[in-house]
Records
---
Amino acid sequence: MTNIQKEINYVIDKFIGKKGILIPLLQEIQDIERYLSKETMSFVAKRTGIKLAEIYGVATFYSMFRLKPQGEHIIRICKGTACHVSNANSIMDSLRNNLTFANSDEDTTTDGKFTLMEVACLGCCSLAPVIMVDEDTFGKLTSESIAKILKKYD
Amino acid sequence: MSLEIKVGLASCGLAAGARDVYTAIENYLHKEKIAADLKKTACIGMCFAEPIVEISSEKFAPIIYGRITPEEVPELIEKFLTGTPNTAKAIIAKDCEAEENDTYNSQTRIVLRNCGKIDPVSIDDYLKVDGYKALEKSLKNMNRTEIIDEIKESGLRGRGGAGFPTGLKWQFAYNENNKKKYIICNADEGDPGAFMDRSVLEGDPHSIIEGMIIGAYAIGADEGYIYCRAEYPMAIKHLRIAIEAAEEKNLLGENIHGTEFNFELHIKEGAGAFVCGEETALMASIEGERGMPRIRPPFPAQSGLWGKPTNINNVETFANIAWIILNGAASYAKYGTEKSKGTKVFALAGMIRNSGLIEVPMGMPIRDVIYKVGGGMKTERPFKAVQMGGPSGGCIPAKLLDTTIDYDSITKTGAIMGSGGMVVMDTSTCMVDIARFFLNFTQNESCGKCTFCRVGTKRMLEILTKITEGKGEMEDLEKLETLSKNIIKGSLCGLGQTAPNPVLTTLKYFRDEYVAHIVDKKCVAGVCKPLIKYEVIEDKCIGCTACARKCPTKAISGKVKEIHLIDQDACIKCGICFDVCKFDAISKS
Ligand SMILES: Cc1cc2nc3c(=O)[nH]c(=O)nc-3n(C[C@H](O)[C@H](O)[C@H](O)COP(=O)(O)O)c2cc1C
Ligand code: FES
């Protein structure tokens, strides 16, 4: 058994037999691999007896679950109302211009360093436009301040 | 002299650099060997002035300073100690002039009573401000129906959006004869542009927990959940700490205050779905399923979480409870209008000067909220509209600024009170674009159960996109109206039933703008990219090359000291050239 499987088994053991476990279970498992692979979901189905279709249904329903491998840092770009009227679109453009992607549909940079993710409101609307890199929030952004923030993660 | 210093370290403060200010204070106190009580607090609501530092001593009343940098720390403390406080950066103060004294004093703080004042993770701080006294009073001096009657008399209506009377809701859950009942706090705060609940969760978690325990006792529940969205990591952390502290003091757990009453409280993290704010979808999500709304009746009070009688209220609703029990229903009902009692917290954002959190009595005109409490517009551009109620609400235009804030008056405008988000817009916002923005949101967030909500919103979004691209036709407006009517009729939950509101209100108040996009192919606000064009004004361009250097697509050509030219085919209309030109030599049309 690989280490990852061991960790996953450990998480499953913690939850098994309790009610309403699927979402927190998947959240903790996602923390291990940073995304939910097909193999992992099948493994969870086998061990818990929850149908694979149900697991896949839940994983695709909630935006927090990611089905593709992620970059080292996750950049959440707020697309909420306050940020939208404060020109959040230009922040997205600026991020895309400062980073390199294989093509315009990709969200993860070619070097695997960052993944861009749009979210609806980070709750810091008074500092719009706002982004969050991992757990740190940055506000009152301009197209120019983006490069400086990205440098911190070099 | 004993000195007390508080630094606001909520999400908004941290994003503005409050952590560095806190460290600077810590270092300075240490270096100068000054004995002072340095405390962490949360958000006082003046987010526009973060980082915020409050200093007080036995001799001097507190002064709250705004926009403090780490470099300013030594002088700030030194002057306070020598008895000549620096007041230039004071935003709120009792004994001297301060920038925001008026805006602060025009508020009435019940829900936000402790936010930005106490250390949110210290139960002792909460106990010092009469925390958990209301719980003690409820358990020792009141019986369950008396509590429910008190809440009924206060006139408190649910702050989650719909405004259902809270006392009545508790009564329904109380009436159910079942050994197992649940109580849930809805902390999903999905409305983009609203952050009232986040501030209370981060800044005063015990007030929510106390409200829930009282509610649980009144309806007869022994287990509860706080469903908090995962985008609020600090709120979740503070709740965890608060629950543990309350358990240690036996305010949660078994035989609370030596009575027969037991109550256990859990936190559930959301997983990112707007529809999970809807109560029946939220319960499905707690049960581990996809968050799809269920048909009502049966209502949650009869059959909710795991089929048991369940009462669900919003964060702000619960934060009012302890105050009402302690101060009495009559003191609460003194504030507000006949049908909307008490105060309401609003999150001001967008093009308003004092963006942040405020709490005012119901019945205040919107004009006063924006111009008095909110400090007016942020830029020179005039007010255009205020968006209330998020994706379920609408845009209220300037001519209706005298509408008072209460459930019924706001509903009359076509918007809704919603949870309290107010996004202020000026003439740089395009109303068709805003309608498209919200439809895009609801389209994404529709759970897909009802056909009209799933497909209807998609058709509306396509039409709105067409209009913003200058390809709209006049009959599209009728189509939008027909689709709206049908989506409202054909949807099971509030998401679909209210999704057309942003379109209907903008069509009602800003129809001209739609027509301008369709007939004249013009976007007056200059937002809809396919309809705008950037050009160099030859008379004004001095050839400084600033624009050419910043242009991300290298669409601008020209040598130093020569007039520049924008290649329209390469231009992506990002507007950077317009922003960086110091000579107003770029025109936008
Ligand atoms: C699509 C949708 C989203 C909602 N989101 C929230 C929310 O984020 N927070 C909230 O408290 N109520 C939300 N509600 C309202 C809840 O369904 C419910 O009415 C509320 O939590 C009841 O609490 P209250 O009586 O204290 O207002 C939402 C409703 C709908 C239809
Ligand atoms: S709208 Fe961007 S943080 Fe709320």
---
Amino acid sequence: MAEPYVELKSVSKYFGSVVALKDVSFDVCPGEVHCLLGDNGAGKSTLIKTLSGVYAPDEGEIRVQGKPTRFASPADTRNSGIATVYQDLALVPLMSVARNFFLGREPMRKFGPISQFDAEFANRTAYDELAAMGIQLRDPEQPVGTLSGGERQCLAIARAVYFGAKVLILDEPTSALGVHQASVVLKLIVQSKARGIGVIFISHNVHHAYVVGDRFTLLKRGRCTGTYAKSEIDRDQLLNLMAGGKELVDLEQELGKVAKNSSA
Amino acid sequence: MAAEIRDERVRSVSRLSRLLSRPELGAAAGTVLVFVFFAITAGNTGLFSAKGIINFLEVSAQLGILAAPVALLMIAGEFDLSVGSMIGFAGILIAIPSVFWGWPIWLSLLFSFAVCGGIGALNGLAVVRTGLPSFIVTLGSLFMLRGLTLGLTRGISGRTQVSGVHELALHDPLNSLFSGQVFSGLIAWLSDIGLVGKRADGLPSISGIPVSIVWWIVLTLVCTWLLTRSRFGNWIFAAGGEANAARNLGVPVARTKITLFVMTAMAAALFAAIQVLVTGSADTLRGTQKEFEAIIAVVIGGTLLTGGYGSAIGAMFGALIFGVVQMGIFYTGIDTDWFKLFMGAMMVIAVLFNSYVRNRAMRSR
Ligand SMILES: Nc1ncnc2c1ncn2[C@@H]1O[C@H](COP(=O)(O)OP(=O)(O)OP(=O)(O)O)[C@@H](O)[C@H]1O
Ligand SMILES: [Mg+2]
């Protein structure tokens, strides 16, 4: 596989006495989807916040294209091509799709001494970029509030891709979506990958992760319990690892007992 | 081929629903209603003569000068309750240096604009830094500025009113910017062709357009351009719509809001400059309740109280309704006591209508 675009090398992060990450290594290459799986509190959010420059690692280092790097701020991280799409998506519901697309990076057009927002370019670009990713907008000037959850997710992703993201970090992008909406987002992830973007996909949902993922890393209580290529593992094994196979079997037996007792 | 036709239909429908979800729609309809109402009830009282029109436009212009930047501030999600007191304070800042310290009027004017701009920046800084609601912060400014105005004026002049500005302003280079009239030639010509009535002595019934009306229109156009065509406008909508998202995308939310507080304070100073130079005096009670009138005009104009949505053109309609109703009630001879009842009711209806339009805009898929 190609050289990783960004890597974490034996990173640890502590919050007082809480060990949020311990000796975790993680990387993503251009054109691959690397899924990060783990239970609640496993440290997934902490890991991506470290990757996106919100936290500095207490131990270990971050490398971008092989070079050890310290991010000064989230904006600094964005400038080095690593874009994070958070759960809140950073969208303004009452503003139009096109204006959201370019918020903070407005295209300007000069008319003599004054330069003004190039609405026509913004509308056309937002429309085309989303169309290229399979989202047909009714109107680039419709408010984002009128989009469905999946479409909003796609807008946030398309925006990051348009502004030159080399690595996309998606924190549970499908968790709040129905089956159809989730499949739209999953398609978009595959499209981004086809464009040579490295995607870090955080999810609770093994089914979603397995259809798009190339590699899977499991986190448990702040530790990395293994990284598997898709060829090394099938969906059920992954499900077992993720849910802690034994726990599921126990749960099944327990539920069986409950059912028997209540029917007796 | 078939696909093209369908696409065309989708587009034209969306254009109509886009028009119907414009924030100023309600205010435009309200303006038409109010005009029709007074055309019927006050059609022959002179309300719609050239003189009557100038009268209500002047009332509207004064309020509209405040309402345009207040609309921008409210779209950014903040209130400025200090603009009314700022008007009184700015008037004193013009009159006292000129009358008591011998400053030329132009210097007092610049002084007043500078000090008010500075206080606006302090308002903005206080809101942004403390994270307190601007409603509370500027309520404090409302009282502090009024107190300061009274204290300073009485301390320096011994009274609450400072007059005698007219004589000093007569030959001042900035005088005609804020008082007097423009387009006198045009009005004379309109009078010659019979579009503007003549007085008994043969002169036109009005001698020109008061300069405040020009300020109102120019300010509304500038604010509209800022809102819809500038980068700053995008930031205003974003700051009021979802400040956190805006910040995450690198929008300077704090700077945007502070700039808007400076703009509302400067608008109050402009209001005061016009008032002081037209009347020739300043009074400590000037501008009382203008903050609320401006908010009413803005809300009637379709701006949401919660921010993120609205327009400056709408605020212009709001101010126009205000002026027409105030003068219309006067011309029809209805007791003017009823004016406030009417405007208050208008605002409540506007708020209900606005949230309906907003919901409609968010539903139109
Ligand atoms: N800012 C913080 N201060 C103190 N402790 C923290 C902080 N952030 C996270 N933690 C702790 O670190 C551990 C890992 O949390 P993290 O949010 O990374 O988990 P997660 O895998 O994202 O879980 P979830 O699936 O619930 O989102 C948890 O025990 C959490 O309580
Ligand atoms: Mg998390």
